[in-house]
Amino acid sequence: MAETVAFYILAALILIFALFVITAKSTVYSVLFLVMDFLLVAALYILLHAQFLAVIQVLVYAGGIVVLYLFVVMLVNLKRPPEAHSDPRRLGRFGLVMALAVLAEIVAIAAYGWMTPAAETGALSASNVEQVGRALYTDYLIPFEVASMLLLVAMIGAIVLAKREL
Amino acid sequence: MVDAIIIPLIKIVIVFVSVLVAVMYIVLLERKVQAWVQVRLGPMRVGPHGILQPIADALKLFVKEDITPAKADRWIFSLAPILVLVPALIAFAVVPFDADITLFGLTIPGYIADVNVGLLYIVSVASIGIYGIILGGWSSNSKYPLLASLRSSAQLISYEVAVTMTLVTVIMLAGSLSMVGIVTAQREMGWWFAFAQPVAFFIYFVGGLAETNRAPFDLPEAEQELVGGFHTEYSGMRFAFFFLAEYANMIVISAVATTLFFGGWLSPFPNVGWLGFLAWVPGWVWFTAKTFAFLYVFLWVRATLPRYRYDQLMRLGWKWLIPLAILNIVVTGVLKVLV
């Protein structure tokens, strides 16, 4: 019961902050609201007893990726939007396509959740770090390795792009 | 009720107050140590040997005018000092100060919280602290703070990689991410991880110096180039917040180093028979003594080493410490399989 209440409060806050992210006038404020959103999502993970995921969420998203966003926003002058972005009709069409795609995604997820019965969660053991590690290195070994190769390639690509002469 | 709410609350208050008092006195200790190294006396006027100097300093900061620059972003300018200080303080939530204490028939654990991702919690909380630094420099709308905050955050991000990598070796030895679990593992192994993992300890400590912007890595507040760092435009209590956060972060680094590498609350030399009387000293005394030993090294290093150049700092971080940390993981892994 308490968990349900906490979930709805967190979900409402997440949506409110998400709205702030897209309506804030200053881009720096947008980024800060995004950090709040990531922290609240981490709280949702804790509610699901996934402490490991929650901490990684804070470490990677709030502490890493958004810091880079902030760098970009601070260093690049965003006061005057480029011409292409100021055309309202073009923005509207693009927005409509994106909104439809997201809607289709949400409907698909909801339908899938409706049709398949809830998975047996079983007893949540205290050490979900161990569970995550075991799952990643046994059942999901190949996707995990593919993802890490992808990240490695991205990293090398970024270095090559940033440094023209090596 | 008592177990779940009142005792943790009392512990939080005790930890909070002792950290803040410790911060005040580390500032005095720093001035004293610098003075002794340079054959001076240091603060002597306020109280005997300047013992009341921190209180005078705090009062001075309280009554000073709080200035917001005209072109600053007001909201973020006020938010930044808070964002720096809060992560430094909440990191203490998972640091174990002592073994379980029995008091009036109640068994009180020597930590505020023991989560099974304790070490990761500390790392992620520390990574949140960067926001205060970046935003403080940016919102001042002034060039020196902005430059300093860019330097500071680049430094933090670079050294965070090396430090986090090196913590992996500790986790491999302990087989646990919980801070209490790591101390227990050291008790069971019979020796502290600083002796099992000297390389990891070295990287952690160098990274700790860099992450707290301390000498010889104090480029973000290089007075000769940048006036005073990302908090140049701050005054009064807001400046005090940045100051408190810097020293609180030093305590966090020292306390974590104590826990990970020097056995936390454990007494030294449990294997030497005639030193057995050391076990009678309470654990929190050992913990505090070890933490202060580290803090003293912080001050000592500042008085001894000259500042690095910025390219040297980045080269040390990326080209030496990170590869060394990765190599250390590999060696530890191989040894763990073989032995």
Distance between the termini of chain A: 59 Å
* Strand content bin of chain B: under 5%
User: What does the overall shape of chain B look like?
Assistant: globular
Order of helices and strands of chain A: HHHHHHH
Q: What's the number of extended β-strand segments of chain A?
A: 0
Q: Count the DSSP helices of chain A.
A: 7
Mean pLDDT of chain B: 85
What overall geometry of chain A do the principal axes of the alpha carbons give? Answer: globular
Helices and strands of chain B: which structural class? mainly alpha
Question: What's the average pLDDT of chain A?
Answer: 83
Largest interface chains and counts: A-B, 22 and 22 residues
The fraction of residues assigned to DSSP E strands of chain A is under 5%
Put the structure in a nutshell.
Chain A has 166 residues and is mainly alpha-helical.
Task: Give keywords.
heterodimer, A: 166 residues, mainly alpha, 7 helices, globular, B: 339 residues, two-stranded antiparallel sheet
Structure description:
The complex is a heterodimer of chains A (166) and B (339). Chain A has 7 helices and no strands. With 166 residues, chain A is mainly α. Chain A starts with a helix and ends with a helix. The mean pLDDT of chain A is 83. Chain B is mainly α and 339 residues long. Helices cover 67% and strands 2% of the residues of chain B. A two-stranded antiparallel sheet of chain B has the order 1-2. In chain B, a hairpin with a 2-residue loop joins strand 1 and strand 2. The longest helix of chain B has 36 residues, at 2-37. The N and C termini of chain B lie far apart (47 Å). The model of chain B has no long low-confidence stretch (mean pLDDT 85).
Task: Present the secondary structure layout.
The complex is a heterodimer of chains A (166) and B (339).
Chain A (H helix, E strand, L loop, with lengths): L1 H22 L3 H21 L3 H25 L7 H4 L1 H28 L12 H10 L3 H22 L4
Helix pairs in contact in A: 1-2, 2-3
Chain B lengths: L1 H36 L15 H11 L10 H17 L10 E3 L2 E3 L9 H11 L1 H10 L3 H32 L4 H11 L3 H4 L1 H14 L11 H4 L9 H26 L21 H22 L5 H29 L1
Antiparallel strand pairs in B: 1-2
